[in-house]
Amino acid sequence: MMFRATVLTLYPEMFPGPLGASLAGKAMGEAWSLDTVFIRDFTRDRHRTADDTPAGGGPGMVMKADVLARAIDAASPSDDPRPRLLMSPRGRPLTQGRVRELAAGPGAMILCGRFEGVDERIIEARGLEEVSVGDYVLSGGEIAALVLLDAVVRLLPGVMGHDQSGTEESFEAGLLEYPHYTRPQLFEGREIPAILTSGDHGKIAKWRRAEAERITRERRPDLWSAISAKKG
Protein backbone atom coordinates (compact mmCIF):
# COMPACT_ATOMS: atom_id res chain seq x y z
CA MET A 1 0.00 0.00 0.00
CA MET A 2 1.41 3.36 -1.01
CA PHE A 3 1.78 6.03 1.69
CA ARG A 4 -0.30 9.00 0.54
CA ALA A 5 0.47 12.52 1.79
CA THR A 6 -1.77 15.52 1.15
CA VAL A 7 -0.48 18.93 2.24
CA LEU A 8 -2.80 21.92 2.65
CA THR A 9 -0.84 25.15 2.27
CA LEU A 10 -0.84 28.77 1.20
CA TYR A 11 2.47 28.10 -0.57
CA PRO A 12 2.18 24.95 -2.70
CA GLU A 13 5.30 25.98 -4.61
CA MET A 14 7.35 24.96 -1.55
CA PHE A 15 6.62 21.30 -2.33
CA PRO A 16 8.09 18.80 -2.97
CA GLY A 17 11.20 20.89 -2.30
CA PRO A 18 13.93 18.68 -0.81
CA LEU A 19 11.50 15.75 -0.78
CA GLY A 20 11.96 15.58 -4.55
CA ALA A 21 15.64 14.66 -4.12
CA SER A 22 17.69 11.86 -2.59
CA LEU A 23 15.92 8.81 -1.11
CA ALA A 24 12.49 10.44 -0.82
CA GLY A 25 12.59 11.69 -4.39
CA LYS A 26 13.62 8.32 -5.78
CA ALA A 27 10.80 6.62 -3.87
CA MET A 28 8.10 9.12 -4.91
CA GLY A 29 5.51 7.45 -7.09
CA GLU A 30 6.49 3.99 -5.89
CA ALA A 31 6.52 3.96 -2.07
CA TRP A 32 4.68 7.24 -1.52
CA SER A 33 2.81 10.06 -3.21
CA LEU A 34 2.46 13.77 -2.46
CA ASP A 35 -0.41 16.08 -3.36
CA THR A 36 -0.70 19.75 -2.46
CA VAL A 37 -3.93 21.67 -1.91
CA PHE A 38 -3.90 25.46 -2.34
CA ILE A 39 -5.99 26.79 0.53
CA ARG A 40 -6.96 29.98 -1.32
CA ASP A 41 -8.83 27.88 -3.89
CA PHE A 42 -11.48 27.40 -1.18
CA THR A 43 -12.13 31.07 -0.48
CA ARG A 44 -15.34 32.66 -1.72
CA ASP A 45 -14.52 36.35 -2.00
CA ARG A 46 -12.86 38.16 -4.87
CA HIS A 47 -9.76 38.88 -2.77
CA ARG A 48 -9.33 35.15 -1.95
CA THR A 49 -9.09 35.91 1.75
CA ALA A 50 -7.90 33.01 3.89
CA ASP A 51 -7.24 34.92 7.12
CA ASP A 52 -8.76 37.65 9.29
CA THR A 53 -8.01 39.70 12.40
CA PRO A 54 -8.06 37.82 15.74
CA ALA A 55 -11.22 38.00 17.83
CA GLY A 56 -10.51 39.98 20.98
CA GLY A 57 -7.79 42.01 19.30
CA GLY A 58 -4.07 41.52 19.15
CA PRO A 59 -1.36 41.39 16.51
CA GLY A 60 -1.27 39.34 13.35
CA MET A 61 -3.92 37.39 11.50
CA VAL A 62 -5.69 34.06 12.00
CA MET A 63 -6.53 31.51 9.31
CA LYS A 64 -10.30 31.27 8.80
CA ALA A 65 -12.24 28.20 9.94
CA ASP A 66 -14.75 28.20 7.09
CA VAL A 67 -12.07 28.31 4.39
CA LEU A 68 -10.02 25.61 6.07
CA ALA A 69 -13.10 23.43 6.56
CA ARG A 70 -13.82 23.43 2.83
CA ALA A 71 -10.18 22.65 2.02
CA ILE A 72 -9.96 19.82 4.56
CA ASP A 73 -13.28 18.28 3.52
CA ALA A 74 -12.17 18.25 -0.12
CA ALA A 75 -8.75 16.78 0.66
CA SER A 76 -9.79 14.37 3.40
CA PRO A 77 -13.45 13.30 3.35
CA SER A 78 -15.03 11.71 6.42
CA ASP A 79 -14.20 8.16 5.29
CA ASP A 80 -10.49 8.95 4.82
CA PRO A 81 -8.53 6.70 7.23
CA ARG A 82 -5.50 8.98 7.28
CA PRO A 83 -4.79 11.09 10.38
CA ARG A 84 -5.31 14.83 10.02
CA LEU A 85 -2.25 16.69 11.26
CA LEU A 86 -1.70 20.38 11.97
CA MET A 87 1.90 21.55 12.14
CA SER A 88 1.95 23.82 15.19
CA PRO A 89 4.57 24.93 17.77
CA ARG A 90 2.08 24.15 20.53
CA GLY A 91 1.54 20.57 19.38
CA ARG A 92 2.91 17.40 20.90
CA PRO A 93 6.60 16.95 20.01
CA LEU A 94 7.21 14.70 17.04
CA THR A 95 9.00 11.55 18.19
CA GLN A 96 10.56 8.63 16.37
CA GLY A 97 7.79 6.48 17.82
CA ARG A 98 5.09 8.66 16.24
CA VAL A 99 7.04 8.72 12.98
CA ARG A 100 7.03 4.91 12.92
CA GLU A 101 3.29 4.85 13.58
CA LEU A 102 2.68 7.19 10.66
CA ALA A 103 5.00 5.20 8.37
CA ALA A 104 2.99 2.06 9.14
CA GLY A 105 -0.28 3.75 8.15
CA PRO A 106 -1.95 4.78 4.89
CA GLY A 107 -0.59 8.33 4.89
CA ALA A 108 -1.49 11.70 6.35
CA MET A 109 -3.32 14.92 5.61
CA ILE A 110 -1.12 17.79 6.81
CA LEU A 111 -2.35 21.34 7.35
CA CYS A 112 0.35 24.00 7.36
CA GLY A 113 -0.51 26.88 9.65
CA ARG A 114 0.52 30.48 8.96
CA PHE A 115 0.30 33.89 10.64
CA GLU A 116 -0.75 33.63 14.31
CA GLY A 117 -2.29 30.22 13.74
CA VAL A 118 -5.69 28.78 12.81
CA ASP A 119 -9.14 29.29 14.25
CA GLU A 120 -9.45 26.93 17.23
CA ARG A 121 -12.86 25.76 16.03
CA ILE A 122 -11.42 24.04 12.95
CA ILE A 123 -9.05 22.05 15.18
CA GLU A 124 -12.01 20.85 17.22
CA ALA A 125 -14.46 20.36 14.35
CA ARG A 126 -12.12 18.37 12.13
CA GLY A 127 -10.18 16.51 14.82
CA LEU A 128 -6.76 17.88 13.93
CA GLU A 129 -3.74 16.43 15.73
CA GLU A 130 -1.31 19.25 16.48
CA VAL A 131 2.32 18.26 15.90
CA SER A 132 5.47 20.23 16.78
CA VAL A 133 8.95 19.65 15.39
CA GLY A 134 10.67 21.60 18.15
CA ASP A 135 10.50 24.31 20.79
CA TYR A 136 10.84 27.20 18.38
CA VAL A 137 8.59 29.12 15.97
CA LEU A 138 8.86 28.96 12.18
CA SER A 139 7.31 31.34 9.64
CA GLY A 140 4.80 28.64 8.78
CA GLY A 141 4.06 24.95 8.88
CA GLU A 142 5.51 24.12 5.49
CA ILE A 143 9.09 23.51 6.64
CA ALA A 144 7.77 21.51 9.59
CA ALA A 145 5.69 19.40 7.20
CA LEU A 146 8.79 18.73 5.09
CA VAL A 147 10.62 17.59 8.22
CA LEU A 148 7.80 15.25 9.23
CA LEU A 149 7.46 13.74 5.77
CA ASP A 150 11.20 13.23 5.39
CA ALA A 151 11.29 11.38 8.72
CA VAL A 152 8.35 9.19 7.70
CA VAL A 153 9.24 8.45 4.08
CA ARG A 154 12.73 7.15 4.88
CA LEU A 155 11.11 4.42 7.01
CA LEU A 156 8.78 3.18 4.27
CA PRO A 157 9.62 -0.31 2.96
CA GLY A 158 12.28 -0.24 0.27
CA VAL A 159 13.23 3.42 0.64
CA MET A 160 16.49 2.91 2.54
CA GLY A 161 19.09 0.60 1.07
CA HIS A 162 19.46 -1.47 4.25
CA ASP A 163 16.47 -2.34 6.42
CA GLN A 164 18.61 -2.18 9.57
CA SER A 165 19.47 1.47 8.82
CA GLY A 166 16.14 2.49 10.29
CA THR A 167 16.53 0.58 13.53
CA GLU A 168 20.11 1.30 14.59
CA GLU A 169 19.94 5.08 14.96
CA SER A 170 19.13 7.80 17.45
CA PHE A 171 15.87 7.51 19.43
CA GLU A 172 14.98 3.99 18.26
CA ALA A 173 15.80 2.49 21.68
CA GLY A 174 15.40 5.74 23.57
CA LEU A 175 19.14 6.39 23.16
CA LEU A 176 21.20 8.65 20.96
CA GLU A 177 23.22 6.83 18.34
CA TYR A 178 26.72 5.48 18.94
CA PRO A 179 29.73 6.97 17.07
CA HIS A 180 30.54 5.90 13.51
CA TYR A 181 33.92 5.50 11.81
CA THR A 182 35.22 4.53 8.38
CA ARG A 183 38.50 4.51 6.47
CA PRO A 184 41.17 5.80 6.58
CA GLN A 185 42.31 3.95 9.68
CA LEU A 186 44.35 6.98 10.82
CA PHE A 187 43.04 10.54 10.41
CA GLU A 188 45.07 13.49 11.73
CA GLY A 189 46.52 11.33 14.48
CA ARG A 190 43.16 9.84 15.46
CA GLU A 191 42.64 6.10 15.02
CA ILE A 192 39.46 4.07 14.63
CA PRO A 193 38.79 2.36 18.01
CA ALA A 194 40.55 -0.99 17.89
CA ILE A 195 37.47 -2.92 19.00
CA LEU A 196 35.64 -1.95 15.79
CA THR A 197 38.26 -3.70 13.68
CA SER A 198 38.59 -6.72 15.98
CA GLY A 199 35.99 -8.84 14.21
CA ASP A 200 34.40 -9.71 17.56
CA HIS A 201 30.76 -8.78 16.91
CA GLY A 202 29.68 -9.43 20.49
CA LYS A 203 32.23 -6.99 21.89
CA ILE A 204 31.42 -4.49 19.15
CA ALA A 205 27.73 -4.60 20.09
CA LYS A 206 28.55 -4.05 23.78
CA TRP A 207 30.88 -1.15 22.92
CA ARG A 208 28.24 0.51 20.76
CA ARG A 209 25.62 0.15 23.48
CA ALA A 210 27.97 1.60 26.10
CA GLU A 211 28.85 4.54 23.83
CA ALA A 212 25.18 5.21 23.08
CA GLU A 213 24.44 5.26 26.80
CA ARG A 214 27.39 7.57 27.50
CA ILE A 215 26.39 10.07 24.80
CA THR A 216 22.76 10.03 25.92
CA ARG A 217 23.72 10.64 29.57
CA GLU A 218 25.96 13.56 28.58
CA ARG A 219 23.78 15.25 25.95
CA ARG A 220 20.17 14.31 26.74
CA PRO A 221 19.67 13.81 30.48
CA ASP A 222 15.92 13.91 29.86
CA LEU A 223 16.11 10.79 27.69
CA TRP A 224 18.47 9.10 30.13
CA SER A 225 16.13 9.83 33.04
CA ALA A 226 13.27 8.18 31.16
CA ILE A 227 15.40 5.09 30.47
CA SER A 228 16.55 4.92 34.10
CA ALA A 229 12.95 5.20 35.28
CA LYS A 230 11.93 2.23 33.13
CA LYS A 231 14.81 0.16 34.46
CA GLY A 232 13.87 1.07 38.03
TrEMBL record:
TM spans (from-to): none
UniProt cross-references to Pfam families, sorted A to Z: tRNA_m1G_MT
Catalytic activity field: guanosine(37) in tRNA + S-adenosyl-L-methionine = N(1)-methylguanosine(37) in tRNA + S-adenosyl-L-homocysteine + H(+)
Keyword NADP: no
Gene3D superfamilies, per database record: 3.40.1280.10, tRNA(m1g37)methyltransferase, domain 2 (1.10.1270.20)
Entries under SUPFAM superfamilies matching the protein: alpha/beta knot
Protein name: tRNA (guanine-N(1)-)-methyltransferase
Protein source organism: Phreatobacter stygius
